[in-house]
Structure formats: C-alpha cells, structure tokens
Input
Amino acid sequence: MQHLDVLCNRIGGRLIGSDAYETAVKWATKKLEEWGMEVIVDSVGSLPVGFNRGPWFGRMLDQNGMNLHFATPSYTVGTKGVQTGHVMLEPKTRAQFDRMKGKLNGAWVLISGKSNGWPIDISDEANTSRISIMLENEEIEKKNNVIRQENWANRNTSNPQKELLPLKEEPALFYKEMVDAGILGIIQSAPNPIVALYDRKNLEDLTFENLPKVPDIKLDEHQFAVIEQMAIERQRFFLEFDIRNHFRLGPIPYHSVIGVIPGTEFPDEYVIMGGHLDAFDVATGGVDNGSGATPAMEAARLIMQAGGKPKRTILVCLWAGEEFGLLGSKSWVEKNADKLDKISNMFNRDGGPTVASSIKVPAAMMKDMKQICEPINQINPYFPFTVSEMQPVKRPTEPWGTDSGPFAVAGVPTLSFGTSDPKGYDFTYREIWHTERDLYNMSIPEYQEHTSIVTAIVVYGIANLDHLLSRKGYWKKDEPKTKEKERKR
Output
C-alpha cells in the first residue's frame, strides 16, 4: 500500500504520453534499484503528442443551479479558460442546422447517444460517414414533409394522423459545421460511474497543428436529463466550464520497467511476474492497475530483503501502454522470441485487489506446485489457499485484453492466481474499471499485502526448481484434420 500510495497520490493517473507516466517509470526504476535489482528501462514506442490532465469543474448558472458531474476522454481538448455559454440541442437535419447556425456561436451543444467512454470520432472517415447520413436524413425529411402536409390536410377529418419516419441517429452529426459555427463544446449523457477513455482513432495522427478544437464532455446522465428537458423547453440558462486538458509537444517515448533478479544456476531461464504500470488519468489507477503492479513490486522487495538467490532469473515486469493495446508486453514478446521457450510461467495481475487464494495447474505441474504452495496456509488462517487441477486450454491466436495475452499467443504458460473476497468487502471490478472511481482507497490493504506474500513464495519457488515447469497438458493439442470420407470421382 505504500507503493500504491506513491503511484496514486503523489504521481496520479499514469497515461502513456503524460508527465505522470514518465515520473512513474523513474520512481519504479529507483525503487527496484534500491532493493538491489538490475533494471532494464525497456523502450516500447513513442506517441506523436503527449497529454496532461489538470483540474476541471463545471456548473449550471440558474436560480436552481448545480455543480456538474462530468469527465472528458484523454487526448481531447479543454476549455480556453472559464467559458460560459447557453445550451442548445444538436441539429439533426440541414434545415435545422440552417435555422439555428447563428445561435450556435458560443453555445454548449447537447448531442444524442449514451457515452461509452470514447470521444466522438472527428476523423476524416467519420466526417465522410456523417455526410452520407445527412443525405439519408434529407431524403427521410422530404418524406416527412409530405406526411406533415397530409396530416394537416386531414386534421379535421376522421383519417388517422400518420407518424413521422425516424431520422437516422448519429451523435454530433453536424460536428464540423457546428465547430465552424463557433460552439464552445459538445455534451453527451454518460452513465454512472463515468467512464473516460482516450482518442484512440486519431491519436497516431495528432500533431500540435490538428488537435481537436472543442471539448467533448461526458455528463452525468441524471444531470443531462434535467438540462436536456430545460433545453427542449427553450429555457434561457447558462453552463460554465473550466477544463484544463493540456498537450505536450512530441514525439513522447514511453517505456516498460523490468527488474531483474539474476538466476544463479539457470540464468537463461525465467519466471515473470508483474502488471501494467500505466493507468487512465480520469482517476489515479489505484485498482487498474496499481493493485496489480504494486504486489509484484512488493513481492520483489520481499525476495531481495530475504537475500533470495533464485536458481533461474526472475523478471519483475511493469508494462507500458496496456490500456492502449498491450503495447509493452507485445513489444517484449516480439523482441525476446529466443526466451519464450525458457519461461516457466508468466504471472500477470490485472483483476482487482481481491486476495490470491488459489491456483489451477495441469497434472504435470501438480507435484511441484503443491510443494511450492504448502507454506502459504501457515501464514494467515483467514486466507486459505488451494491448488487444484486444470484441464488443457486452447492456445489463443489473438491476445486477450491484458498483458498475459501476447505470452499466451506465443505458447508461454500464463497461470494466474484465483482470487476471492473472504471477508466480504463487496468489491466490484466493473464499478471502477476505467472510471473516475479508480482510486487508492478502492484497493484492500490486507488483500494486497497477503497477495504480495503469496506471489513472492510461488514465484521464488518456481524459480528454485531444478527444472522448468512442465508444459505437458497445459495447451490442448491441435485437433487432427478430418480426412474426406469419399473423393468425388
């Protein structure tokens, strides 16, 4: 928890490309070196621009005014100081846009749809797609005008009124036109807790010359509903925002941090433990993935403090750019193909701060793992640990969504600890995942502490075996190809 305190409360959200991430790399490197490890600061890649998030606030200026609860995705622009403006609903057709284009200047615009954390796509491809939808809506509106005329003509008759055809929905359909008209920004409804991701579609093409021009605000859905209704009623009121999203001149390199505890007998064989060091910056990454990176660091500290001299090399890997697509782990696997057959296991923790309480292994590993794990149940009676047999698993062809994925694709065993919540702290991963609630106080100290000890015991035990863990029965064998029963003559 001391390590996590530094990561969350002194450094903060650690998005690659940010000053905070670079500080985290320097700090983690310093700590691993202090504990006596060799450290590799592993170059992974670079981003064309960087991003630093500052404070933000917003409020509704009205007799019933309120402070606004919102977030903005990373790599989107902030306000130009404190900006105050009226509120409008976005136009859905060209006729609507033409009718309101003068009033859009200086307005905050409410757009349709529910936020999923990603910003509205402002790429050239998206603008081309919007043009196509505009044309479709123009044709629908022509038909609706005919229906309106028929309904008007039949207003005093027994003929039923026809319903208008629905327009095709696309959030911020007139985005480019609205920006050119002078809007202050767009606002979209967001479920709670608010998820805030990053501009993945445009990031690689961003430069200081083509950054987004207006904020993309994800507003608490309950507040959005109130403001939307006021806008529908054409009430006159104002919103005020101050959003300090700042960019860094690139390119911005980013790195993984790898601590090395050299093997005394088999230095070219490995056990890997770790988790990703980066974290989304709308919170502080206390759980995702501070709760994974810091137990690996603490396990390494424990091994070093105990004077550990493992027979094979232990790598403590704090990966870069997991949130941007497993960038650090993919890079390491690509650059270290010669080591992959010599890895006993890759332990990755990226599932929250519940306690390590079990492990499933193939039958061929059972004897070794039972012996290695035997001391665990002497530590804390509240956290019993079990070892059970697993069935072979299918080797993936594409990485899954955490840093063990690239290793699994390469055929490296990726055994992980089963976790539980035996004391009933009611932790729910989805509550914090990529949201504003991913904070230091969401991690559970006694679970984190015990997991660190379990990790140290198991990793050190595997590293001290006289042999690599057997991979027999870990992966399913490829099914034989079926022969044709008959050949056509």
